[in-house]
Amino acid sequence: MRLRHAVLFAALAFASAPALAREAPTPQREVVGNRTSENIPPIPPELLERLDRYQNTRGASFAGWTGDGCLLVSTRFAETAQAHRVCQPLGMREQLTFYPEPLAAIETAPAGSGLDGFVFGKDVGGNEFWQLHWFDLETRATTLLTDGKARNQGPLFSRDGKRFAWSSTARNGQDTDVWLMDFATRQARPLVTEGGQWSAQDFSPDGKRLLVMRYVSASESYPGVVDLDSGRLTMFPVEGGKASFAAFRFAPDGRAVYYVSDEPVDGKPQEFRTLRHHDPAAGKPVVLTASTPWDVEDLDISDNGRYLAYTTNEDGIYKLHVLSLPDHAPVALPELPVGVVAGLGFSPDGKRLAVTLNSATSPSDVYVIDLATRSLARWTRSEVGGLDPAGFVAPTLIHYPTFDRVDGKPRMIPAFYYRPAKAPARGKLPVLINIHGGPESQSLPTFNPTVQFLVNELGVAVLVPNVRGSAGYGKTYLGLDNAEKREDSVKDIGALLDWIGKQRELDAARVGVYGGSYGGYMVLASLMHYSDRIRAGVDVVGISHFGTFLKNTESYRRDLRRAEYGDERDPKMAEVFERISPLNHADRIRAKLFVAQGKNDPRVPYTEAEQIVKAVRANGQPVWYLLFDDEGHGFRKKRNADYFTAASMLFWQQHLIGGAD
């Protein structure tokens, strides 16, 4: 899933006077292998048994077509997600890679290139310094393609397989350049070295040009094209001077392009990203999705040039569309399950389209659409731990009013509400608020076994809000929490607490908050402001002080985060950070707290977790703390994720579901 998120926390004196501080008892510490636990009680066997089936669910995601018509999928059979091959609907999943670390991006060699294999990325211990490798399907040999030290991502083959592009920090460790390799000789050179964060988007059909993109923030990107022989970079003009861009692809004729952008149209600002076609010979770009008031998320074009597929994100529900080319006429499709559609990929002959489908009640699986017959075939059926899928709970989309107004009416915040199917006739339900990271991300109604366990086994209602700053609701909404407006998103959680208090079935006296990355900051900030209304919180790889976070995050991503959060070198912004950072107000965090972190996190360094744990304990709170030495920004190894989930469920049982502490 896109679980892409970045987070914040760290540093300085908290306001409470030393004479009033009361040191918490020395934490009970346990070190088992790569795991360090503090104050976490032993997990009861009964809880582990109840959790076991939920923790043994898994999903499968489309990763590419091979030249012989088989699919590559990413799925987990043991500890981590690896590459598997499937050659027919619901056929055997043949595992191809067997690493202790999960695979990152997978790029299959183009059909007809003479290459039979794929490129994959892999890091060490979650440090995100991915190295790219070539896997040869015939010999099963693996070859390292990159330098073994830099951060490498975004692998991309030319259509004939002769050239290979990717993004790398190899030049100076800070800027992400586009590199180019002659794949036969494995000779590589930096191609775009303009500074900043660059990615390769698409090779021209003749392999002589490469579309590239410089990413500044969720609302600012700049596209260009490179002549590969001369190395000459030409930037495309951006209407309005600044805009958000997503996918950028050459049209089959190699002259025109298709892309996703929120540039102004005829001088009128646009809230959402639309699919556009620009043929330089025809004049200005043509907007192909003008009638859809939602973002276009992704696109893919068949190798035979006959079809273009794209998805729209409509209030958190994804819809798939296919157009015939070059007339842009809609192509009829079979009905798909309601949920999230991702990972688009046409078969080598262009007659079929593979997608990954995920819903709140079904984990990710790969389906293939036959465009001629409009038929839908399921190629994987992922396991759900022996559970009955009919018992899974789908959420209801709600909207609740917050503190400010739009056009004279209260601004409404969207949220997904998971209500236990076996809710008691009497009594009120405890509530967990699950806050996404990013912050330029979006909570979607995707399958989450932990949420299903909370709802079905523990009887907890779960609310998943998309507070201001979330993606998917327009350019204005995305920018409502930027820089000095950061705490306005925290006020949206306060408004949700108000909404909970008005619901007859929900217990406003038993509310917990959970979040990872930026969502971890939101947990700490919510506890800072609303500890009298929130009983407990779980902060995963979260930011505790924006100033220390920006100082200590990896250098290649520091400017990206400054574009969102503000620049700590600016005295006015530094003052804001001092005022809003939870670390400086740890004395106000009186609710129960559980902090979990990966030691190798390059985004939110583990020091962010350790400093907030120390500060809150200094006020007499016995914080639970969990640190994995072999993880980074989140927990991707099954044994680690299983322990964290079990500890979290025990935490909720003790501090949310039970009586008052």
Automatic annotation (TrEMBL):
Q: Which InterPro entries did the record assign?
A: 6-blade_b-propeller_TolB-like (IPR011042), AB_hydrolase_fold (IPR029058), Peptidase_S9_cat (IPR001375), Peptidase_S9A (IPR002470), WD40 (IPR011659)
- The record places domain Peptidase S9 prolyl oligopeptidase catalytic at 447-656
- Offer one example of a GO biological process linked to this entry: proteolysis
Question: What are the record keywords, sorted?
Answer: Aminopeptidase, Hydrolase, Protease, Serine protease, Signal
* A GO MF label: serine-type endopeptidase activity
What domain of life? Bacteria
Q: What is this protein called?
A: Dipeptidyl aminopeptidase/acylaminoacyl peptidase
Record the organism: Vulcaniibacterium tengchongense
